[in-house]
Amino acid sequence: MGGALARRLGGRGGLAAFAALALLVALLPQVTDLYLTHLMVIAGIYVLLVFGLQVVLGMAGEFMVGYAAVMSVGAYACALLTVRAHVAFWAALPVATVAAALVSAGVGMVAIRFVGHFVAIITFAFNFIAYEVLIHWDSLTGGWPGIAGVAPPEGIPGLLVWDKPTWYYLVWALIFVLGGLLHRFRRTPWGLTLLAIRDDALAAEASGIATRRTKVLAYAASGAFAGFGGALYASYLSVVDPSQFSAVVSVNILAMLLLGGKDSVLGAALGAVLLSVLPDELRVIENVRWIAYGLILVLMMLVLPGGLAQLAARLGQARRFALRRLHRAPLEGAA
Amino acid sequence: VISNFAAQLINGLTAGSIYGLVALGLALIYGVLRKLHFAHGEVYMIGAYAVIAPALLFRLPYPLAIPVAVFGCAAVGVLIERLVFRPLLHAPELNTLVAALGTSVFLQYLVAVIFQPGPRNVASPFTDRLISLGFVTTSWQKVLIVATVALLAYATHLLLKRTRFGKAIRAITQDRQAAQSLGIDVQRLVILTFALGSGMAGLGGALIGPISYVDPFVGSGIILKAFIVVLLGGYGSIWGTMLAALLVGMLEAFSITFLSISFQDLVTFSVIIGLLLLRPSGLFGRSEGELGRA
User: Fold this and answer.
1) Per-residue pLDDT tens for A170-207?
2) Does the reported pTM lie above 0.90?
3) Which residues of B touch A121 (CB under 8 A)?
């Protein structure tokens, strides 16, 4: 995976750059305060979520706009299992993952019957419905206050306690493993099938690809990421409530994906880190930060429609241009 | 029982009319632009606040505040077109979607900051005046809403069918490029359509203000219903859209009576998505509608 990421980081210096990045990620909790470590755990969970959205939206091209609702399935499953049924976290985690994958596949089965961007309406409606269920079905979900006391992961007595740095290393190790797998996945026949459907569903269908079944599988896979991330999120914060899964959260995850560029695993990770830290940094007055946030989303789409990948390409162009000028300068001076 | 039934019928009719008005504007804009205008619900919300603000500031009576709301919202719509949709005309659909959602977040919290948060209500001279209709007594405001929307729907029908303007809009909806090459000023018509559609949404907000509480976040609920109404009505048919809107209004009104208010939206959305699964091109849709292809 190192090699693959290294190539993405750009040729010969790539491996060194990748090693530097890994070192930076590894050292961060040692050199910064606990608050930044905390922010990076949240950011890391969002990176995992964006990976899932990259499968269904970035690769299969389905306009899944209700991603936070799928995430809520995993989070609430984990909360209910550990708080009400006293199941251990490590046992609840796979159940939450599978539950979210199944719900997501169900949403997918409905959504694939609609064309193009009408999928966005159906999945957005799903987010709306899920939010309403979380609020009003209080006997199950706890209503507005939600469920508190979600179990932390079980440590090893005397060896491992779950403090913030441990969480940090768990989440970021998962990012490196799953990110590497996702990057590989893009080049497998399954990954290429998804890309084929995104680029031309009709041609894919004509080539013998079962587009509908494949799309539903993509929904299920992205749901698994969402459920996994949602369960980690619930356990890390130790509380779930409906406001964590409103439509704005879905929009934010969508924006993370677009900022990073739909086609790059590294970009998706960067986008998630930037946009999950941003609303926190904009915290002046509660409502004003959302005004600024909305504005930033619009500006981002206007100025950088291709996300950070486009920015990198532009910078590269500028650098080549500047280098060329630099080489030419002495000649012009001589003439 | 009968009077309760009739009362819910009127409530459903009123809510449905408002959904129809918002959905009609949305369908017009979608037709000429082929983009999902997710901030259209916020234009509706601004319409409601545009009645509240002048009433608070200048003690402007309600009937005079309505035109302020309509023209104000038309201006907001044109501004959104100019600043968000036009620069993104050729951008990938997903980018436009995020930009529209960003606009919607921006407007929601802008209004939430300007007006102190919490639900608002505005007084209309028609709210307290009652009218007796056989089994049931209702307020003039509801009669006003249903009558205004019915008239406007008919006017829109005439506008699209009988005028050069309407013909041009239908042409753009069917094929933007062909319309352009035939010398239709597409840019100008898109702006006019935004003004018209946004004015309709603003009127919807201005009419509902006096009989329902309004908060800065009402837009996200109404936009989903409006989109779903457009889909259910069979995109492209005015009367299909209006009938679908009334159906949604009725579903809501009666699910409150027979079930609980908590799951009102759940019931409505589930029934409609179920209907859409049975008839993907909408209840009244043809494969090629009056306004264009879905």
Assistant:
1) 888 898 888 888 888 888 888 888 888 888 888 888 88
2) no
3) 36, 224, 227-228, 231
> How far from A285 is each of A42, B27, B107, CA to CA, in Å?
21, 37, 16
Taking contacts as CB-CB distances below 8 angstroms, the residues of chain A near B101 are: 251, 254, 297
A269 contact partners, CB below 8 Å, separation of at least 6: A47, A50, A175, A179, A260
Contacts of A293 (CB under 8 A, 6+ apart): A278, A279, A282, B102, B105, B106
Which chain A residue has its CA at the smallest distance from B89's CA?
Answer: A302
Q: Of B88, B90, B273, which to mutate for an interface test with A (greatest number of A Cβ within 10 Å)?
A: B273
**Do A113 and B110 count as a contact with CB atoms less than 8 A apart?**
no
Closest CA to A252 of A63, A36, A59, A65: A65
Q: Is residue B291 pLDDT above 50, yes or no?
A: no
pLDDT tens readout for residues B1-44 = 677 788 888 888 999 999 999 999 999 998 888 888 999 999 99
| DSSP conformation letters of A260-329 | H-TT-HHHHHHHHHHHHHHHHHT-SSHHHHHHHHHHHHHHHHHH-TTHHHHHHHHHHHHHHHHHHHHHHH
Who wins on pLDDT, A90 or B282?
A: A90
Q: Round to whole Å and give the CA distance between A315 and A295.
A: 24
Q: Which residues contact A295 (CB under 8 A, 6 or more apart)?
A: B102, B106
Q: How confident is the model at residue B290, as a pLDDT?
A: 38
pLDDT the model gives residue A14 = 58
DSSP state of A208: T
**Any A CB within 8 A of B94 CB:** yes
CA distance B37 to B60: 31
Among A residues 54-93, those touching chain B with beta carbons less than 8 Å apart: 57, 63, 65
Q: What is the reported pLDDT for B288?
A: 40
For residue B213, give the DSSP letter: -
Instruction: Give A214-217's long-range contacts (Cβ < 8 A, gap of 24+).
Output: A214/A60, A215/A60, A215/A62, A215/A108, A215/A112, A216/A105, A216/A108, A216/A109, A216/A112, A217/A105
CA dihedral B204, B205, B207, B208 (to 10 degrees): 110
What pLDDT, on a 0 to 100 scale, did the predictor assign at position A1? 41
Question: What residues of chain A lie within 8 A of the CB of B106, using their CB?
Answer: 290-291, 293-295, 297-298
The two tokens of residue A205 are 């269908």
| CA distance readout (Å), A314 to A169, A304, A306, A309, B37 | 33, 10, 11, 9, 30
Residue A199 near chain B (CB below 8 Å): no
Query: With an 8 Å Cβ cutoff, is B194 touching chain A?
Result: no
Neighbours of A132 (CB within 10 A): 18
CA distance B4 to chain A (A): 25
> Which residues in chain A belong to E strands, given as ranges?
147-148, 239-240
What does the pLDDT read at residue A283? 62
Q: Tell which residue, A260, A201, A242, A246, has the closest CA to residue A53.
A: A260
Asked if A141 contacts A134 with a C-beta cutoff of 8 angstroms, the reply is: yes
Instruction: Give the list of residues 6+ apart from residue A44 with CB closer than 8 angstroms, or none.
Output: A168, A171, A172, A174, A175, A273
CA dihedral A253, A255, A256, A257 (to 10 degrees): 90
Indicate the average pLDDT of chain A: 83
